[in-house]
Amino acid sequence: MLMQARPLSLSPFPLYRADTVVLGSGCAGLNAADSLYDLGVRDLLLVTEGMNMGTSRNTGSDKQTYYKLTLSGDEPDSVQAMAQTLFEGGGVHGDIALCEAAGSARGFLKLCGLGVPFPTDLFGQYAGYKTDHDPARRATSAGPLTSRYMTEALERNVRGKDIPLLDGAQAVELVVEKGRLRGLLCLDPSGGLLAIQCRFLILCTGGPAGIYEQRVYPQSQLGGSGLAIRAGAAMENMDLWQYGLASLDFRWNVSGSYQQVLPRYISVNEKGVEREFLLESLPEREALLLAFRKGYEWPFDVRRREASSKIDLLVHEQTRLGRRVYLDFTKNPAGYRFSALPEEAREYLQRSGCDLPTPIERLLHMNPQAVKLYSDHGIDLAKEPLRVGVCAQHLNGGVAIDCNWRSSVEGLYAAGEAAGSFGVTRPGGSALNATQVGSLRAAEDIAGRERGPFGDEEALFAACERLQNGLMRGRNGGGRPFGELLESLSREMTLNCAQLRREEPMRALLDSLRPLLADYFGSVSFRPGEEREYLRALDLIASAAAVLDASLLSAQRFGSRGSCLYEGRPDAPEETKGQLIRTTNLHSECVPVRPLPRPDPWFENVWRDYRVRKGL
Questions:
Q1: How many domains does the chain have?
Q2: Do 224 and 285 belong to one domain?
């Protein structure tokens, strides 16, 4: 079972020590800890702000997707073909794409062995379907709670091992000396500082969700990208996010069958007057077709802004006008007649047995779990409309990594959404695969590393003292209250640096953040007892600044691409897929991606090289 970790000493600050620290308790963090233990790294510490927090455990969609190598049917597939798909998304390093393809079956089958209920046919084939940006049938699902099932299965496995756990610890600073990680500073549940000395650390904290006001991320998702940014680690593709339609009162993607059953899109003004706003811009038949396609073309995509992504733009415009937007499953949209539906939608509904009178009846027939999910959170889709908006859903960038998931800071690794393994576009569900492959690659690399001495603890204690003095300044200072600052920041990011981007407001916002980061404790204040939120705000401000700096350069060098439509900028040329934005210490530059390797898989040569590499 997981054992509560105990400090080595209490003076001058509580000190913990471990060869390797895993920071985060989602799919990536738990698999990292589990893999390290199995690889013989037993001097290990799992650190989390809360075991039940984070995106993996608390979010999903109608049919949450896991993307991996095809394991059914007679359609041809290969590791190289899957890597090519990931690489062709643009802004992706080829060696990382190949690793994620090569490790996908291994990571997936481990989860199956741990009890995640991915469906098989009578012969044991893992059924697949096409997801967005997927030319093959590589996607699979265990239903709307796939990532939760993954997290729970991995946690059960981890709890069966003697892995020390430090729960309730909020990571607030990575301590780095001369480019080498020395350890980590955290706040304990009471707000006191503690230090953790380590040789290696795998950052598995997800994406910086809080920089956006309108987001799919659950309230408990806090992120930790600012830790790496402030430690001087190189970041990549911080300009590239994924945005899409989601419910707001209970945060959840409204993709897949939520769209394919064709609910009404309505907006309501402050007087309660509603209208089917899609029909003000689209003919009835086209509105039905684009809404249907929104199910499997869920992310906003600049290339589809005159097709299915026009739905996102129309929803955003209604929101900008101060109107609330809803999906209404109780009534059919105007012009709905089953026999007159566009052929694509009619054939899908017919094959699914959904020639039923209303959207809610069609949804209950096709996906009753999707209805129950909202019912469990107090929303009855059979009686009330569902409030929606275009929300931030996933950071496709993050910490710059090599093919072993090492960062530019010696000893620091990143996996899952914290790692910059994706670029412009990515197949749906590839994020879940990345949590498993990236965490395993990092664990394997750490297990094979030579160990030097820990060194003394003075650097950690000195960092604790500096941070403690900074907190005293912020608590006693007259700076701007952090809560007010964060509220304004997230609102401005949603308005000007989400799926629609405006360069002048972005530049002005970045210019306002730079001096705050240069003297945060002297410029931003908090009240006693707010230490945790205050330091979280620092993390988010650093993350937002990196996103803004990368996005401004991306607008100039590339233009609109992926989920990011820059006002007044053309679409990025095809050749820019081979480039990405790297940001270090809030300075961004354009760099080429590493090419996609095409190794010769001749067994005798691989076997010989493997024996040499492993010392066999």
A1: 2
A2: no
